[in-house]
Amino acid sequence: MRHSLTAQQVGYWLSWVAMLSRVASLIYALGILFFYPHPIIAARTANLLILWVVAALYTLGLAVLLLAHAGRWLRSAPFIVFDTLLAILIVNLAGGGYRNIFSLYSLIPTVTTALSLPSADKPFRRAALFVSVVVMSTAGFVSSLYFDGYTLPVIIEYRQVDEVVLRSASYWVTGGLLAALAAMMIAWQHSRDRANALREQAAVEEERRRIATDIHDGVLSQLSALSRRAEYASLLLAEDAQAAEEEMLRVVTLAGEVHEGIRWIVRALRQDPAQLTLGGELTRIADRFQRNTGLVVELKLPVNEPQVPVDAIRHMGYIVTEALTNVWKHAGVGEAAVVVRRTNGQATVQVIDEGGGFDPVEVGSGRAGLGLWNMRERAQEIGGDIDIHSSIGGGTQVTISVPLVAHRDGRA
């Protein structure tokens, strides 16, 4: 079974990554403030602590919103612009030149915007917003330098060009790396969606071929045989009435199979074949018999229903239908039981009645004989086994066993 994340789920988890980055930046700022204070920072400890508390409370509020699954709002353009402006304000109020303890925190809007790219409804607009955030964040950090007196002549005089350029370029470097990662995620998403679409298309084509095969090999061949048997029966009417009657019984049986085949194909077209289950098919058969014939069918299903191939469900349904028809017409009772079990890697279905029974050896012709032959042929077609146990006055048990669907790890 495949487990695929939607774009919104990807966006939600990336929002948590951005949130953890925000927390990490605040921990870094607090560490610098208390454990590695530069004289410029030490002179502003009180103000910087107030700013840190404000940023921490703001971050706590965002975390609560994210826990409340408001991640989509936290990735919206208005919030990102507001968050960028707030980060710029904090970094300017903190001051300290390129030693600003909130310089790492001011990178967060860039991180948030880059990580919002994979879940964006309109990637090109989000890319434009991303570039705007990078430009605004860089300008905000540069303005904090300017207001602290770090003009270009001063930076050159104190030989701090490398440090200032490195810190200013961090917005573009960080943004570029995360944008490249986001682009790879978007490409992966498109590739996965395309692969899923191809798999679904292949499944549809496979189902169409299966239905076409069912129609060609099942219904059409049965209709052809039905036509020939009807013609043969009409020829026998003038010569051998008993033989004609037996042939008409075969025609009736074959017509019933054609009807069931068409009913199954129509249901498969209306319903996802993966949703067709053995229990559901047997429930439908039991309800139909009780409604149309008055035969009470007690269906016993296990708690964990055995999984069998779709084609096996179809044939097992035909076998159970044939067995219940025999109960209704020949057993002389008003009820039967259908019991489903799961044993030794096989699904077993038993049709049980306490009617008059018959001698299987002596039944070799007529309606019952043809029905038993059809049941054995269908069981063989799906690689299953069938056992028909009956005796005069002792009722009948028809047992069908088929292999279960194997999982990828080999379990049934």
Describe the fold and architecture.
This protein is an alpha+beta fold. It has two domains: 7-198, no CATH class; 276-412, Histidine kinase-like ATPase, C-terminal domain (Heat Shock Protein 90, 2-Layer Sandwich), CATH 3.30.565.10. The chain is built from 13 helices and five strands. The chain has helices at 7-35, 39-42, 45-67, 71-74, 77-94, 108-115, 123-147, 152-157, 161-236, 241-270, 278-293, 310-331, 366-381; strands at residues 296-300, 335-343, 346-353, 385-390, 396-403. The protein has a five-stranded mixed β-sheet with strand order 1-2-3-5-4, with helices on one face. Strand 2 and strand 3 (346-353) form a beta hairpin. Helix 1 (7-35) packs antiparallel against helix 3, helix 1 packs antiparallel against helix 6 (108-115) and helix 10 (241-270) runs parallel beside helix 13. The chain is rod-shaped.
Question: What is the 3D form?
Answer: rod-shaped
Could you tell me how far the N terminus lies from the C terminus, measured between alpha carbons in angstroms? 15 Å
Mean pLDDT: 83
Strand order of the largest sheet: 1-2-3-5-4
Unreliable runs: 407-411
The helix content is 55-70%
Number of domains: 2
Summarize the helix and strand pattern as letters.
Answer: HHHHHHHHHHHEHEEHEE
Largest sheet, strands/sense/barrel: 5 strands, mixed
Structural class: alpha+beta
Radius of gyration: 38 Å
- Helices, by number, come to 13
What is the strand content? 5-15%
Tally of DSSP β-strands: 5
